[in-house]
Amino acid sequence: MGRNKNWRVSRIGSYAIASSIKDATCFSCTTFNILAPIYKRLSHKDPSYRESDVKEFWLKRNKKILDWLLWERSSIICLQEFWVGNEELVSIYDKRLGDAGYNCFKLARTNNRGDGLLTALHKDYFRIISHKELLFNDFGDRVAQLLHVELISQCRNNNVRQEILIVNTHLLFPHDSSLCLERLRQVYKILHYVESYQKDNKLNPLPILLCGDWNGSKSGHVYKFIRSLGFISSYDAAHLYTDADAHKWVSHRNHRGNICGVDFIWLLNPNGYRKLLKTTWGEALSGLLKYQLKRALLTEDDAFAFLKGDCQGKCITYVGFCRALQQVGTFQLA
After folding, report:
1. Concatenated DSSP letters for 34-59?
2. What percentage of the chain reaches a pLDDT higher than 70?
3. Which residue in 23, 96, 141, 145 is deepest, having the highest Cβ count within 10 Å?
4. pLDDT at residue 83 tops 80
5. Which helix (H) or strand (E) holds 190?
């Protein structure tokens, strides 16, 4: 979201959890890539000319974004490509969201990339238990936020204490097929961190909300990996969409000018059946390898010979296996 030439706001996040929020026991969630001014190009002839060079432009657009967010008044707001490197813009968001009753948490991408994440939780709905920052330390300088919250008493449908884990992230863009594995690894890092957090704090399995710009469609490996773990796309659930309906919604226009649906709010019911993370991770890697080999038009026998490489005998060496994966674009060797 947030990459349209003419400023428009898609309503993907606002109806993901609840459509008309009148029941005090319900809460809403918005996820929104607001396109950092340092990335928004103003001229095709001069790619270096960005919105960040013209204060009037970025200030006007971000005030409109804030107007819409405050009109929508979601209980949870997850923003990506938030311009954390501009103190004036940060203070504007802090002031307006703070005055509206939100607690704000910001996290910059590593290596001073200039943008990052902002997660805002409304005080009428949540008490903050813990806030954690996850730095991937990869070549995409990606990060994620984890917030452990408790629903305040008037938002519960009973007197039982109710807690939720909320994640906000922005995955690496798939510039080519060699990044598929890295994108899956980023998701694994998030889910492993969430799993470890629950174990370390001796928590019972909690509902998990994964929000953000996943930079991948419903046909991608990331989508299939997350869903295989028991997560549901709340937007699909709200609109009764299936995989065949992927063309029916668009969340933003990317930097290549393509319209796509890649912003998701994932929800995990802790009471539902759930595969082990390591098991699902292995299945995801296997599926990615099969996909790449099929793209290379290899039969089973050809695939074995290809993976075996120069090795003599009926075995596959680790080195030969890695070289073969590199050739089909699954990952890059250091």
Report:
1. ---TTT-BS-SS-TT-BGGG-HHHHH
2. 67
3. 145
4. yes
5. helix 180-200
**CA 127 – CA 280 distance, rounded (Å):** 33
Backbone φ, ψ for residue 149 (5° rounding): -130, 160
CA-based nearest residue to 117, from 40, 171, 191, 50:
171
Q: Tell me, what DSSP letter sits at residue 176? A: S
Q: How many residues does the chain have?
A: 334
pLDDT at 248 over 60: yes
Q: What is the pLDDT of residues 322-332, one digit of tens each?
A: 676 666 555 44
User: Contact at 8 Å (CB) between 109 and 143?
Assistant: yes
Let me know the angle formed at the C-alpha of 51 by 40 and 9, rounded to the nearest 5 degrees.
Answer: 60
Distance CA 120, CA 102 (A): 6
User: Could you tell me the pTM of the whole model?
Assistant: 0.79
**Residues near 197 by beta carbon (within 8 Å), at least 6 away in sequence:** 132, 146, 148, 165, 203
